[in-house]
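**User:** My hope is that you can spare some time for a protein that puzzles me. I have put the entry right below:
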Amino acid sequence: MEVHGVETLTEVRCCCAGLLCDLLWSDPDKDVQGWGENDRGVSFTFGADVVSKFLNRHDLDLICRAHQVVEDGYEFFAKRQLVTLFSAPNYCGEFDNAGGMMSVDETLMCSFQILKPSEKKAKYQYGGMNSGRPVTPPRTATPPKKR
């Protein structure tokens, strides 16, 4: 996806397939070994074995990802080799989640801050949710709390 100035913002191509799509929409799944189908209807799920293999191959220690609601703002996977961050508390008024923020110091030590909403906002739909793009599902099967 490339944008070359304000005048091309309306010309951004959809990333519904290929590498960019998979980088954006693939999700970790504790019940999967290797690769699996994604409930989003696009891209894949992957197991802890895929995370370990990728980190070893590229001499890395941690994958930091986002784009998936997690209840406490951040959540580890694959023996703390992957962390999912989600910084929008009370996502779209649909979820009772906290937001999370990760800081990394000069020694590469990670610390996390939890972001709680100051007040519960009314439910709303952000403009892109019914646009045919996959929505950001929660990590857990916990349904949103009823009001």
Summary: The CA atoms of residues 92 and 124 lie 6 Å apart. The mean pLDDT is 85. Helices lie at 19-25, 48-57.
